[in-house]
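Re: weekly structure request thread

Next one in the queue (121 aa):
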Amino acid sequence: MPRLLGVEIPADKRVEVSLTYIYGIGFSTARRILEQTNIDPNIRAKNLMPQQLNEIIHAITNNKIKIEGDLRREVGMSIKRLIDLGTYRGLRHRRGLPLRGQRTRTNARTRKGPRRAIKKN
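Done, posted below.
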């Protein structure tokens, strides 16, 4: 398994798909990185030369793409800021409810978790 910036990427997948296993790099960003480095997106990750791996790393760092720990920290701090300010979105984060106007009378089970039974006296 090739290792890029502290992340193991799958060796048997195409490079443009393997790069998406890095938190903060989606499909379009992976494509843009491969275009800049002139690497064929259909090559398997295990067939990349060390020089090509270095080119990918330099492309990510030179474009100042935030990935992994830095991005996770930034997202966490943004959510914490909303909570501290007491905004509507912050309150929804704190309560574990959907943030973007979805209905909660039915559905929203992903955010709310499993149903809890109501005890009858």
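The chain has a mean pLDDT of 90. The CA atoms of residues 2 and 9 lie 6 Å apart.
Next request, please.
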